[in-house]
Structure formats: C-alpha cells, structure tokens
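Retry 2 of 3 after timeout on previous attempt. Resubmitting structure tokens to design endpoint.
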C-alpha cells in the first residue's frame, strides 16, 4: 500500500516541481544513451529539423569561443515547435552520455510555446543539446516525419539571478494567482529539494517527468476545466504538503479519504495527457499499485516502505559518548553493548575517546530506547558526557564581476573588502597555497572557475560516507566560489583568494541539513588533512561533541570561521559562539549590518553577506544572502594572510582581521525602541540584568567591525607593527617599511603624520584620553594598512622617597604587584624590584653622587607609567674647614674648605663673620680683634645645607704687657719694686745683663731682688706675660743715697 500511495504522490510531484532551478544534477537511472553524433550549431544561425520515423532523440553541439566567454555570461538556447518537444542542455560530453543535467536546463515546447534555456558559460565546453519527442500514437508511422522544430542560440550577458527558472511547470500553470498557490508551490519545492533528490528512485521519476511535462502542460494550458481541477486537488492536499515539507521523512501526517481522492484524480489527469509510450512507462513505475488504499496511512510510514528513503530513517536515533581521557573506550563499548545496543563505533580514527551509539539498527534487528539508554550510559564512571546527535543547517575582468559589490562597491567606498587595491598588490606574487576547508554541502569542482582550485581527490562525503564530496544542494559551491573562484579568466566571478585550495568536506545533505556526528567528523577530517582555515557556514544548537572537534582542529593550528546565524536575534548561533571560532555576521551594500544577521556578545566581526553573487553547481551566478556568505569572505582573507606569512598562529590571524576591520557602528537615534530606554516611568524589573560593559571599539551588532581584507594583507606587505599607545604618551611608535607614510587619526581629525625611516616610525601626537580609539594608517604604493589602537591606561606613577648620596636603596609606594624600574640619565635600567602586597617597594641601587639624575617608573607588562625624575640629594656634610692661627691682633681669618661652601665663624655661638669659599675652597673672614684665649668656631655649609663639623681656633695672645711701673731705686736698694701685669715675669737688667727676675702677684705687684747698684746706673725693667710677650723696658736711674 505504501508503494501505491507514494507512486501516485510522485506523479503529483512531477506536475509541479521539476522545472524549478537550484537542485542537484540528476541522471535517469538505468537509461542508456545512444552514441552521440552531434551536429555543430553556430551562434545566431537557426537550424530547422524534425524527427523521422521512430526517431525520438537528436543531438547538437555548441563550443564557446574565448570571445564568447569574455563577452557573455550565458548562451540563450531557443527551441520552437508545434508538437511537444523536450530540450536538454548538458555541460559536457560525459554529462550528456550519463544523462546528467540540471533541471533548469531541461525545457519543452508545444503549440507555439517556445522552450528557452539560458545556459551559463561556466564550463570549458563543448556543450551538448538534446531534442526529444514521442509520438502520441503508439504505432507511429516509422517512415514519416513528425515533430518539426527550429533550434538556435545566441550569447547574452545576464546579471546574477535570485534562483528559480523562468518556465512554468504544470502546477504553476494551475496555481498561479490562486489564493493558496504561493504557499502550495513553496511546500512542493521543499519536498522536491529534499525527498525526491535523495536516491535513485526519485531520480527515475525526474527523467519520466521531463518526458511527460510538455504533454501535461499543454493539456492544462488549453483546458480551463483541467486547470481548475488541478488547483482544487492541490488545495485539498495543502495540509499534507505543508506537513511533509516541514517534517520530511519524519512526517506523522495521516492521509484522509478526501486527500486520497485528490491523489487519484491528479494521477488520472497526468496519465491521460501523455502519449502511449509514456503511459507504458508510468504504468511500469506504478507496477499495479492500488491508489484507493492510502487513506489512514501516515506519511512517515508510507515513505519508509517505498524505497525512496531507508526504512529506518524516520526512527534513526544516535548518541555520542565522550569517554574520559584516562579511561578505556573498549571497556565502555562492552558495557554499552550489555544494555542491548550492539552498534557502537569510534567517531574518528584519530580519537578513540568519542563513540557513536546507534540505538536503532535495522540490519542487526534491534531497537533501544533513547532516554533510558542515555541515562544508563551517563552513569558509567568512565564516561565524561553523553549527548544525542542533533541536526544543523546551512546558513545561508570576469563577466559577473561588476555585480560583486562586496569586492568593489561603487556606491559606498568603504562598503567592500578592498579587493581592487588588494588585487593590484597580489599581481605577480607567487605565494604558497593555503588549504581552506569548506565544511558544507559539498563543492562542484567541474565548473571552470573552480576546476583548478578544489582538491577533489582529498574531499570527503560524511553524508554518504564516500570520497565524492560533490554538491547536491548548491550552498557549498556558492561558499567555495566566494573564496576561490579563479579571477580574470573571463568566466563567471572573481574569488577573493587566488592562493586558496578548497578542501570539500560534505557534512550537509541535499536539503542543507546535517547531524552532529557528520559535522564533527568533517571538522576533524579537515584538520587532519592539513586545512589551515575551516569555513563553517552552518549553525544549530550547542554540542559538546562539535566543541571537542573544534578544540581538536584548533590544537592543530586551524583558523575556524563560522557564520553567526540568520535569525536577527541577539544571540550568536553555534558553532560561531564557540571560543575556537571567529564568528562572522553579515553586512549589506549600504555598509550596515543586515537585518537578518545574529548579533550580541561573542560576535567577532562582520563581512558582506546580503545579495552576494556566486556560483551554483548549475553554472549560474546567483545571489544568496546570509551569514553563510559573509563567513567565506573572512575565510578567504584568513587564508591569504597565511599564504603571505605561513607561520602565523590562529590567534594572530584573528587579531589581524579584527584590528584592521572598519568601524561601521552607529547609534539609531530614531529607533522607536529607544523611548522605552528613556521613559522614566517604564516598568522596572525586580532583578534587572546588569548592563554589560563593552570593550572600547567593540559593538554588539557589528563586533570589531567590517572586514577590510586590503588592510589586513597590507600589514604584512608594509611590515607594520604599532606599539601600544598609553594615555601618558606623546608619540605613537612602531615599525613599518622604510618610506611608507604613517598617519594617526582620532576619528576624522589628523593628530600627526611621519615617514618611516630605517624600518621604524615615531609620530608626535597630543596626549590622548584612556579608551580613545585611534586609527594608525600606513600607506605605501597600493598597500594601505589601517590599524585600530585603543589608548590604554598607563599605571599610576610611583611615589618615591628622597634619595641621597648616602642611600643604597630607592623606596616608595605603588600599586601592588607592579614592577618598579630605576633608570640612569641614559635611560638604562640600573635596578628594578616588585611592589609588595602592601603597596611598598625597596630597591637596592649602587651609591650615587649628589646631583645625579635617576628616573623611576611603574611597569605592568608592556605598560609603563610616567617617569618620576629623581635628583640624588647631597646628604654628606663638607669636611671641617682648615683655619690659620688667629691672634688677639687679627682682623681677618683665612683657611680652606669645600669649594663654594658657606664659611661661618662664631664665638660663644654668636656669629662674628661669614664668607663663601672660592672654587678652590679658600676663604677669608673679616673679624674684629678678639681677646686672647677666646675660642672661635669655624664651620662650612654646602649648597645642600649640610654643615661640617666646627674647627675651633683659640685666639692667641700677641699683645705685650705695658711697661712696668718701677719705684725709685737707690744705690743702697737691694730690691726693685713696682707694678705690672698680673702674673707677669719681671726682668731687671743693667747694661743688657740680667741682674734680677721675679713675678708679679695677682695684683700686679712685684719685688725683684738685685745687688746694690752704683748711683747713676741705668736699670731696664721688663714684664713678660704668659704668652711670652715682653713689654717695653722701663728705664730707671739708680739714685745716690
């Protein structure tokens, strides 16, 4: 019963789905093609022909010239006939022999309704054209001619398409302008692209459809009643179609009696419209199926019995088990099998710690319950985690180059990736190739633009588990051509990276879906094959298994680029949200973030993703929109950086891409949602979310900015390295190619410019505030690197205590944990030390001379505070001055001391004189005469105020006593008496001969014994004090008595 129902459903699908484009190339299974003897067609020359006798097929050949490829994007092939004739165009002889053609290159003509096919010049050619016709009567006159037609082609230049074919299929003829027609057709397209492209049986019906379509279309076109009948039946089936489109092979929709009747009606209409020979083929396909017994069956149950899909597909359930690193995987496998699950395998040969558990295996005849089995496995001590396999989806002078706005945007200069100048830079360069893995729906490498750019021999298909990674969806080819389509060959489009080699890894099926297991396999395989960049234009829920695969690839050095998602939500989808991935959002031609692009914390950057023209497997250049298209722009740029400098680490590549990106953030002042933010009466949440503080230069919607591939590549071309800029610096410094020009800007304001000399530059700028965004632009030739630098806060300068020439340590305070450096006058570090937890430091230094200049600064990594200038203080006093003798007769004091010292003389603490020593240290002090025996203290004071020890000078006695007063002396006296200075030694002489000596008492009286002297003798009396100063002699004449 299932086959009966589904065969009739296939007939229904033939009515409305196969004339649409963008589906995989299909081959009629089991259909043998005759040896081709094709007639060559010339451009713009019409060929008139007809089918003779039993002839049903005729062949033609078209070879594009180099001029055609340079001037045209397509050949427009027109076939005009009165009778029903089908025309098919093939990309090559091999495709023609294998009857492999894209559905959009099949058409049909009938009753003056011409078939017109625009065939892209995307293959090297020649191209083959097949005309096919079947007689209405089974017993056709083999000797007569029939089905006359005219065939011609011309070159045309068409813009990129948005997908879809121009011709109408039978269902479109019936549903056009009807109320539900649009939704019905969309559902039928979805069913076609999924269920009917999955295996040989669906492809058999494809071939049959194209033979029957012109006859069915002709009947509907000229029969209003037939059109109404088809629409009525399709309207009856709309719920069935909708559920099947949404759920595919997992649909649990139950067919009603009215839907069964509609299916029967549609089948009969189709059967009666076609010639007898095709009725035979339809009958053979139905193989006696009863169309009256499908009511009450579910879609999933019937699909499982048709052979169109695997019977177990609808119930397929798998788990991924992560075994702990120090545990045995074999032990876990044994335990899992003991639960009744026999299919347990390792996810990858590269790691034995990830296991795949298949809960339902039809071949081995067992079924296990997912929930209970998962809980059992989770409890095993050897297991780190268990998760179900989940589904992920794709995020969705060359002739078409003018349409590639992402490479050259004529409307907004900064709205592209800088490809024009980048291409000039790359001309003549022979850089090493870089392998970029496109982990997607596969890649069609037969296209002329990709034939030399794809490593098809290394490709892998994890959907069918084969080596054929061909694209049966189109998404992967579109992504790959953005990256690597060969430029300047006149075919189709220009890819961004001429040095990229695409590794096709198919993890998504014809519908663009893939599961956890396939994607994890694909990521790890790409890393093992040496892919330096892995593009993931897909998304879904978080998976620990995929996260493990991403970590695996990251450890192997791969740069992972992932699309942020197309829901327009403030949440980056997975795997873009992984820390191992560069997450990429989308921009449009206006250079603003696309409305559909997911954003929020974790978004790294954006790139062109709206209306991006690129290749599809059918050779057409078609527009597609999505973060899927944005990601390959970044992957191409990442690969280019790795070709330029293969030693770059993944983190360095990401830093280059984000630091050189363009700021496209803007404030939506007119957004009506802003009123809620400003309304003071708005509802306040009881537990409001804390407002997230963003890093300077980061925007929630556009990340670090929009990709600037020219700037990123120019960094390496111009050897640019900009040093960090701190809020205490007046220069921006770094390295750049000699002769290049460096400009520093704050917004639109130029802060300074300079030329790089000897490979370095220094641009003087005003001091900038912390967190200010600066752009440092370095230009040279076609290269232009613009690097965003955020002004960083320097550490606070340390507080340093006074340093003297007596100190052997520098001490002070600074922020805990910082390093403090001490530099000499030449800015050479002479000592350093760490600030302790209490915020103090004490750093040992060599003893320094007074007046020496030192510099102290606090250092945190590459950040250094403003320097504190230290002048070593003089804390050592001068030596005590040397002073010459001073007497009670002196009016000056002389001596030597420290050069330029201030000399001071004091008596009993009272300063009596001061002066400054000269450059040699000599000094002279003017003083008043001091008493003999007085002590004069002399000190020297240097510029620093240090005072020497005092030198004590005692005033010497240099004044003789007054002449003694002598009493009268007679010839009879034997003593000489008188008065003199107290204590003085008295000497009496006669004729220079001492005749007597004595000493004055404390009152000065003296009495000196002498011998009697003759009258008239002259005596001389002198007094000598303790200082041995001798008074003038007092002459006394001896009197006679």
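Retry 2 succeeded. Sequence:
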């Amino acid at each position: 019963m299932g086959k009966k129902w589904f065969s009739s459903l296939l007939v229904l699908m033939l009515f409305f789905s196969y004339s649409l484009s963008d589906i995989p190339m299909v081959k009629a299974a089991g259909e043998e093609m005759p040896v081709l003897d094709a007639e060559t067609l010339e451009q713009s020359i019409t060929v008139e022909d007809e089918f003779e006798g039993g002839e049903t097929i005729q062949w033609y050949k078209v070879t594009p010239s180099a001029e055609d490829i340079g001037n045209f994007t397509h050949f427009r092939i027109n076939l005009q006939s009165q009778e029903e004739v089908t025309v098919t165009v093939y990309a090559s002889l091999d495709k023609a022999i294998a009857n492999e053609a894209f559905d959009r290159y099949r058409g049909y003509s009938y009753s003056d309704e011409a078939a017109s096919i625009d065939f892209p010049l995307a293959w090297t050619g020649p191209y083959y054209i097949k005309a096919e016709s079947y007689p209405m009567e089974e017993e056709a006159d083999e000797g007569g001619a029939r089905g006359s037609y005219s065939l011609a082609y011309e070159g045309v230049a068409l813009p990129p398409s948005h997908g879809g074919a121009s011709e109408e299929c039978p269902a479109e003829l019936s549903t056009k302008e009807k109320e539900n027609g649009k939704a019905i057709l969309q559902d039928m397209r979805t069913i076609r692209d999924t269920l009917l492209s999955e295996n040989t049986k669906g492809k058999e019906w494809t071939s049959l459809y194209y033979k029957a379509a012109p006859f069915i279309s002709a009947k509907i076109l000229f029969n209003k009643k037939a059109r109404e009948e088809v629409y009525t039946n399709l309207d009856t089936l709309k719920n069935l179609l909708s559920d099947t489109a949404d759920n595919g092979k997992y649909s649990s929709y139950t067919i009603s009696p009215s839907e069964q009747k509609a299916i029967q009606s549609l089948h009969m209409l189709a059967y009666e419209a076609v010639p007898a020979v095709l009725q035979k083929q339809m009958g053979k396909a139905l193989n006696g199926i009863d169309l009256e017994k499908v009511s009450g069956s579910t879609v999933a149950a019937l699909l499982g019995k048709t052979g169109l899909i695997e019977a177990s597909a609808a119930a397929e359930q798998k788990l991924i088990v992560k075994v702990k690193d120090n545990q045995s995987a074999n032990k876990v496998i044994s335990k899992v099998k003991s639960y009744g699950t026999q299919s347990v395998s390792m996810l990858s040969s590269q790691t034995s710690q990830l296991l795949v558990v298949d809960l339902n295996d039809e071949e081995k005849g067992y079924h296990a319950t997912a929930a209970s089995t998962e809980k059992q496995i989770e409890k095993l001590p050897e297991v780190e985690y268990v998760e179900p396999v989940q589904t992920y989806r794709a995020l969705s002078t060359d002739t078409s180059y003018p349409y590639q706005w992402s490479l050259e945007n004529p409307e907004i200069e900064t709205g592209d990736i800088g490809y024009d100048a980048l291409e000039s830079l790359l001309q003549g360069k022979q850089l090493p190739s870089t392998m970029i893995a496109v982990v997607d729906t596969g890649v069609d490498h037969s296209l002329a633009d990709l034939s030399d750019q794809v490593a098809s021999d290394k490709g892998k298909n994890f959907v069918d588990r084969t080596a054929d990674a061909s694209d049966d969806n189109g998404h992967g080819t579109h992504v790959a051509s953005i990256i690597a389509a060969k430029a300047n060959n006149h075919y189709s489009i220009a890819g961004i990276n001429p040095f990229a080699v695409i590794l096709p890894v198919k993890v998504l099926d014809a519908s663009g879906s893939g599961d956890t297991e396939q994607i994890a396999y694909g990521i790890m395989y790409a890393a093992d094959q040496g892919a330096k960049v892995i593009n993931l234009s897909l998304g879904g829920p978080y998976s620990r298994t995929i996260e493990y695969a991403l970590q695996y690839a990251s450890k192997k050095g791969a740069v992972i680029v992932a699309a942020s998602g197309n829901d327009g939500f403030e949440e980056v989808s997975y795997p873009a949200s992984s820390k191992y991935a560069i997450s990429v959002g989308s921009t449009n031609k206006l250079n603003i973030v696309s409305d559909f692009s997911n954003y929020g914390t974790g978004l790294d950057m954006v790139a062109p993703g709206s209306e991006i023209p690129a290749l599809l497997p059918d050779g057409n250049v078609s527009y597609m929109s999505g973060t899927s298209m944005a990601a390959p722009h970044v992957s191409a740029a990442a690969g280019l950086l790795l070709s330029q400098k293969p030693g770059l680490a993944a983190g360095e590549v990401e830093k280059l891409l984000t630091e050189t990106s363009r700021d496209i953030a803007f404030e939506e002042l007119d957004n009506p949602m802003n009123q809620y933010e400003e309304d003071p009466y708005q509802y306040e949440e009881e537990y409001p979310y804390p407002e997230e503080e963003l890093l300077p230069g980061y925007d929630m919607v556009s990340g670090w900015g929009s990709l600037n591939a020219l700037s990123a590549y120019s960094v390496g071309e111009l050897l640019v390295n900009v040093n960090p800029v701190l809020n205490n610096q007046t220069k921006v410094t770094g390295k750049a190619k000699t002769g290049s020009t460096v400009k520093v800007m704050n917004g639109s304001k130029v802060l300074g410019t300079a030329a790089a000399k000897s490979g370095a530059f220094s641009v003087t700028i005003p001091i900038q505030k912390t967190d200010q965004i600066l752009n440092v632009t370095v230009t040279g030739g076609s290269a232009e690197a613009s690097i965003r630098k955020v002004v960083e806060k320097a550490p606070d300068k340390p507080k340093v205590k006074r340093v003297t020439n007596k100190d052997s340590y520098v001490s002070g305070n600074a922020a805990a944990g910082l390093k403090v450096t001490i530099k000499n006058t030449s800015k050479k570090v002479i000592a350093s030390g760490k600030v302790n937890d209490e915020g103090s430091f004490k750093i040992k230094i060599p003893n320094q001379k007074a007046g020496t200049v030192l510099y102290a600064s606090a250092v945190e990594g590459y950040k250094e505070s403003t320097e504190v200038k230290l002048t070593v203080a003089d804390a050592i006093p001068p030596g005590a001055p040397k002073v010459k003798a001073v007497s009670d007769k002196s009016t000056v004091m002389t001596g030597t001391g420290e050069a330029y010292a201030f000399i001071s003389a004091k008596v009993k603490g009272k300063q009596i004189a001061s002066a400054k020593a000269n450059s040699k240290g000599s000094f002279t002090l003017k003083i008043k005469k001091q008493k003999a025996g007085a002590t004069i203290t002399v000190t020297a004071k240097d510029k620093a105020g240090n005072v020497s020890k005092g030198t004590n000078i005692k005033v010497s006695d240099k004044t003789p006593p007054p002449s003694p007063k002598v009493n009268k002396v007679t010839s009879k006296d034997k003593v000489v008496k008188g008065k003199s200075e107290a204590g003085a030694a008295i000497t009496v002489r006669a004729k220079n001969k001492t005749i007597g000596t004595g000493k004055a008492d404390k009152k000065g009286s003296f009495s000196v014994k002498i011998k009697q002297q003759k009258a008239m003798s002259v005596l001389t009396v002198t007094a000598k004090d303790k200082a041995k100063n001798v008074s003038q002699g007092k002459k006394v004449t001896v009197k006679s008595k």
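Attempt log closed. Residues 271 and 279 are 6 Å apart (CA to CA).
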